[in-house]
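User: Structure please.
Assistant: Input sequence and predicted structure:
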Amino acid sequence: MVYYYTKIDPNRIFSRSGSFKTLTKFKLEWEPRTIKKALIELDQEREKFLDIIFPDSRSILISVHNNFRGYSLRNELKIHTKVSINPMENLRDFIICTDPDDFDTLSKGRHYNVILQDQLPEEDDGSLSWAALRNGIRYINIEARLGWLSQQKKMLKFVEERLN
């Protein structure tokens, strides 16, 4: 995604600190007033967007992400509360939960790699998972290797069947 003539990771704009890091990752030099303006715009639009996508009551927000360049479950281990690993599954295919009950349900039988992240980290990277947790939203993120649509579909079906 391009914003203010730089690339950004759209899953890193859900906090001010995450927004700052993603804006400056590929564009190191910003005019101070321009970066301030961009951050203010993202702050204002973030809340509107979250109001639209966050479900009511105990419903679940599910996102499906592709990962590449070696990103895997290992990258998330430093900020997890619990983990359930299926040794037969690739570590690049995993499910992140923000609700302990969802984690318990999805980790039974060790069908897929599952991580519980129900404690806010010291440093918020701007991920949607942290925004959901801050707002008390049940959130599931299905991570699968780029190009593995069939795996994403299997994982999504698994989540839907288990959490209904």
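The longest helix spans residues 32-53.
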